[in-house]
Design a protein that fits this description.
The chain is an alpha/beta fold and 203 residues long. It is 29% helix and 25% strand.
Length: 203
């Protein structure tokens, strides 16, 4: 493709972490895609063919401006409009914690995609733990809302998510845990801010 690199996405280590798992030319579905910035990044860096699913009117408009194919739909209603194994990768980037029916969306992603990529803020990060011990719900860069106005309803740690994958018959292929632009390899459930998982249905 000849698209110019979008300057706004050059310094996005979270995008780069996901892109490293995507093979060039793949077919990608991004759920809760926002304004399409991740899909545009993947188009520019991996020459993918992508679709986004987004409910917010303003974000749908942003997708059009970013040159991204988008379907306006509520993820909570499921992915029944997509055939099984119709995408190489299905991505849910920093949206998992806002889903009401977490188990259903994971099951549907495993049905629709050959591989699934999920990222989420790690509630087990040590600074979050300290705020909880101090008697307050955590507020941070990755969890920027207060308890009374947050869209996040299902916060989890790395251990929680891995247990869910096991329950959903998902085989974890790779995990990356980050703190800013650094990859965390020592005590990731304590020191990591953002977690990325690549997994597939267990055969």
């Amino acid at each position: 493709m000849t698209n110019m690199i979008n300057p706004a996405t050059i310094s996005r280590p979270d995008f780069a972490a996901i892109a490293a798992w995507i093979r060039p030319g793949a077919k990608v579905l991004d759920l809760g895609c926002g304004d399409g910035s991740l899909l545009r990044y993947l188009q520019e860096r991996r020459d993918i063919f992508g679709y986004g699913v987004e409910i917010n009117d303003g974000n749908v408009l942003g997708c059009f401006k970013n040159g991204v194919n988008v379907i306006q739909n509520d993820l909570e209603s499921g992915l029944s409009s997509f055939e099984s194994a119709s995408f190489d990768y299905v991505i849910l980037s920093q949206t998992l914690q806002a889903m009401r029916h977490t188990e259903i969306i994971i099951k549907e992603m495993l049905r629709v995609g050959r591989e699934v990529i999920v990222s989420f803020p790690n509630f087990g990060y040590w600074k979050n733990r300290i705020q909880v011990v101090a008697g307050r719900m955590p507020v941070s860069e990755t969890l920027p809302y207060h308890w009374f106005n947050t869209p996040n309803i299902h916060l989890c740690t790395l251990g929680d998510f891995e247990a869910l994958c096991d329950q959903q018959n998902a085989h974890i292929l790779e995990r990356i845990v980050m703190n800013g632009d650094r990859q965390v390899k020592i005590l990731p459930n304590l020191m990591g801010v953002l977690a990325f998982y690549r997994f597939e249905r267990r055969s």
